Amino acid sequence: MKVVGIDVGSHSIHVLELNVQSRGFQVGQTKSLALKPNSNPTDVDLEVIEFLRQIISTHDVATTEYVMGLRQDRVAIRHKLFPYTEKNKIAKTLPFELEDDLPFSLDHAVIDFKTIRHRGPEAEVLACATLSSNVEKILSFFKDIGATLKILCPEALALANLIEGYDQPVPHGPAMAAEIESASITRNVELLLHIGHSHTLVCAFENKRVIAARSLFWGGKNIIDAIAMKYQLPSADAAREMEMKGFILSSKQQASFEAKVFSETISTSVKDMVRDLQLSILELKTELKAEVESLLLSGPVSQIQGLGAFLTQSLEIPSNRIKLMDRFQNHIPEKSDTFEAKFIIAFGLALEGLKKPRNPAVNLLRGEFSGQKSGLNEIFKTHKSIIQWGIAVTLVLFVWSSWRSTIGFDLETKAQALLKTKALTMAGLTAKNANERGIEKYIQQKKQVALEMKSIEKVMQTETAFNLLKKVSEMAPTSSQIKLDVRRFYVEDKRVWLEGYVRNQVELNLMQQNLKNLAVGGKITTQKPSIVGPKDRLVFALSFQVKRSSE
């Protein structure tokens, strides 16, 4: 079997073929076509169609699958957490979670998701959505070519296959939803910056798993335009200058005037990308509480000398170029920077076509666009009897099991809708927080408020130690009856301790008799004194319980 990754850009088109074997794969033929600059869009489409027709004519339709990338600026990607890990549940709930987050209506959108990891009973996912018109255009494009597309995948998630283990199952870990939402946890991430001709892909990775993806409207074309304007060159000559001589000086002390001007022309253009990148980093900090530890550079423009040092200085983040294909060298016959710069996205798309159900591919050919796949008729003719037996067994199993899943899913959907309605009307939650986690958080907050109110009420009803001292003073005999010196008075909960000295035992007995009216049950306990008094005075230590509240 063969899997072909097709990367159609604004500047060129790259096609990479993987020959799938029993123990892996091997990179087969690769093809590239530089598109004519400043051409009519219709002429460009015809040029691409003719190029792909020539490639497809060399393949067997029954044994070849095609994977194409969708430009990242046409895909909305959102990070979401779900309190369950079942894929079918996530797929049913996802539209409700995204309806307030997308800049377009879900009625005209196609949605799929990628599971980042399982955290205990929860799933952390990246939801992908695009307009149906974008998918229709791609399918129409393939219809003109004379082939059938198997997978339509966002560019950034295809690029992530070079960092992640594309052939590994979804990783599992402990539950961390509460920590992620709290301000006490920080997610350490590294950014992969793939700088292309017209746009730049920004992928954030945590523990080698992509957690966010963005697209910046900046690329090598911006530098080419700056060079062309500065030196009054045609775009083709400016592109050649950038590719062969592009550099940014780290120190200008000993450089020539021409080198300084050339370096400044490139660095000034790169500063526009730095500003956009700073906004993306701020967005990651705000939404995911992510702290960027390092910046990895790839793509054709990343080969500009001194670019990593310039970004390190501008962003104060270590920035270095990375060779993403190094760990796949055993599968790639050609080893060069030029090969990686050209075919990295096409390679990631082809890897997406190798994914298994345990870690499924992200495919925007959903719903009405999930039509019959290429070569299905030929496969049916070849394995007709086996397929018929399989269909018969499947129907038998479906009859007894379908009612269980159908009823369960219907009840769950209704419960989710009712839960959201009650959360909006009764709890006053926002549409974004009107889910199970938001309601649980709301209930916990209300319980905490009730407990605090009870505590405050109890404190308000408790008599203070100052009032108890006042009562003891009022209950004690007058100064004409005894000569009393109080040296220690303290209250712990409902018990009062009193220490001091009087002149004799008669005065002490009189004071104890008076304090019985204040003590609970009239019980006064004599304690061992902790103080020393004058020799002509009698030292005493008394304790008794009092009522401090209205209970």
Largest sheet composition:
5 strands, mixed
Average of pLDDT: 86
Q: For this structure, what is the CATH class of the largest domain?
A: Alpha Beta
- For the biggest β-sheet, the strand order reads 3-2-1-4-8
CATH architecture of the largest domain: 2-Layer Sandwich
Class per helix and strand makeup: alpha/beta
Stated plainly, the CATH topology of the largest domain is called Nucleotidyltransferase, domain 5
Straight-line distance between termini: 82 Å
Oligomeric state, counting identical vs distinct chains: single chain
Describe the structure.
The chain is of the alpha/beta class and 551 residues long. The chain folds into 4 domains: 1-73 and 91-162 and 329-382, 2-Layer Sandwich (Nucleotidyltransferase, domain 5), CATH 3.30.420.380; 170-323, 2-Layer Sandwich (Nucleotidyltransferase, domain 5); 390-459; 465-545, 2-Layer Sandwich (Gyrase A, domain 2), CATH 3.30.1360.100. Helix content is 42%, strand content 24%. The protein has 15 helices and 18 strands. The chain has helices spanning 41-56, 87-98, 132-145, 155-160, 177-181, 220-231, 235-245, 257-288, 307-315, 337-352, 376-382, 384-425, 436-461, 465-475, 505-515; strands at 2-8, 12-21, 24-34, 64-70, 76-82, 109-119, 122-131, 151-154, 172-173, 187-195, 200-206, 209-216, 290-298, 319-321, 485-492, 495-502, 525-526, 538-545. The longest helix is centred in the C-terminal third of the chain and has 42 residues, at 384-425. The radius of gyration is 37 Å and the shape is elongated.
